[in-house]
Amino acid sequence: MDTFGLIQLAELIYEYCGIDFSKSLSSLEAKISERLNELGLSCWEYGGYLRVEPKEWDMLIELITVNETYFFREENLLAEFQKTVLPQYKDRTPENPLRIWCSACSSGEEPYTLAIIAEETGLFQTGAVEIIASDINKKVLEKAISGSYNKKSFSFRTMPKEMLEKYFVSAEEEYVIRDSVRAMVDFRCINLMDKDIAERIGKVDIIFCRNVLIYFNKEAINKVINSLYDVLNDGGYLFLGHAETITGMNTGFETIYTPSAFYYRKGEKCT
């Protein structure tokens, strides 16, 4: 595969969704080679194809995004979310709900986990918690919306048995999330690099954006974090993955450290 064509394609991908393949062209090549063979196109020609067939971006996004996730991932961080953060919003009502944005929800395990945790606290009446779950990959969003997961799936690797029995219905080879949990989550297809995120999401109180920034370069990270900052209400909370940090980047977020986890709270940006 021609290196120049790969470089051009990597630039197109970066401009479209912020994922940076500039230092991992071989990985990009491996992800798209089968698709190029199907279309009978060179890498260079594929870049032109994306311009005239914009729906092909959906297929490309499926190929290049990583969607490994599971229920109750990073339990220490979720424990902090449950014990420290959620009680601060216990007075929310269906008329003024707690709004949580899961900004890279993949196949739905994370937003459903957040909904289960909110239910487990017993702090909120029905309708007082609204979870917006978004992803750029339309195929995994379809799975998320279905709320159905194979019983042998790695999705349940850390799922407490009592939570599985309480919040899922057994259906042949699948476990299906209960309707009461599903009703708390609103799934949407959103590209984190889009300029109209604030209008499409509205103000939220808490954001989960875990294990996304590791695929971006510094410029893209700054753009995404600025968007998240604008969407969050004052004093709202941001949860990133354990391998991601924005400390020292003058983003307007203050870091909250606990013995087992760290996360961020929206403060004022330094001028």
Automatic annotation (TrEMBL):
Q: Which domain of life is it from?
A: Bacteria
Q: Does the keyword Magnesium apply?
A: no
Which EC number(s) does the record attach to this protein?
A: 2.1.1.80
Q: Name one GO molecular function term.
A: protein-glutamate O-methyltransferase activity
Q: Which residues form the CheR-type methyltransferase domain?
A: 1-269
Query: Which Gene Ontology BP annotations are present?
Result: methylation
Quickly give the catalysed reaction: L-glutamyl-[protein] + S-adenosyl-L-methionine = [protein]-L-glutamate 5-O-methyl ester + S-adenosyl-L-homocysteine
What CDD domains does UniProt report for this protein, alphabetically? Answer: AdoMet_MTases
What PANTHER family does its record include? CHEMOTAXIS PROTEIN METHYLTRANSFERASE, CHEMOTAXIS PROTEIN METHYLTRANSFERASE 2
Name the chain's protein: protein-glutamate O-methyltransferase
